[in-house]
Design goal:
Elements: H1 3-24, H2 38-44, H3 47-55, E1 73-77, E2 83-86, E3 90-91, E4 99-100, E5 108-113, E6 120-125, E7 131-136, E8 146-149, E9 154-158
Amino acid sequence: MNRRTFLQGTLAIALMSRGLTAIASGVQEANFEITRTEAEWRALLTDFEYAVLREEATERAYTSPLNDEKREGLFHCKGCDLALYDSKTKFDSGTGWPSFYDSIPNAVATKEDRSWFITRTEVHCRRCGSHMGHIFEDGPAPTGLRHCINGIALTFYEN
């Protein structure tokens, strides 16, 4: 075994254990108002919705029709239908994901996400724990925040 093979193997093991740790410590483990079994979640969601909302996956940029949604209304959690974001706070971030500078009060919660060897702020529905996306500090006034949200995690209701 040479140094390159050793380093590649070590990195692969670190990445795999990091991923397993992230899944094992996901929001599913916490207590929420709305809880469901894995079977109930799988019956409610498509496979990809399940991967995003329950396993913290991310949809590809520019794939959600909600990225281009311009009508007035509310964006709800696909997992429990709680209103999370008002269209008045939506803006075009140029990132390819629906972005908001603020959430509806008491709608979302956050946790530290240390995946990908950086620390980010993960945002999830405070009622059912479904993963929504991440919050970054590069948004517009008045908050300076950008809630970068997976469109597949949301349902839009026009006013």
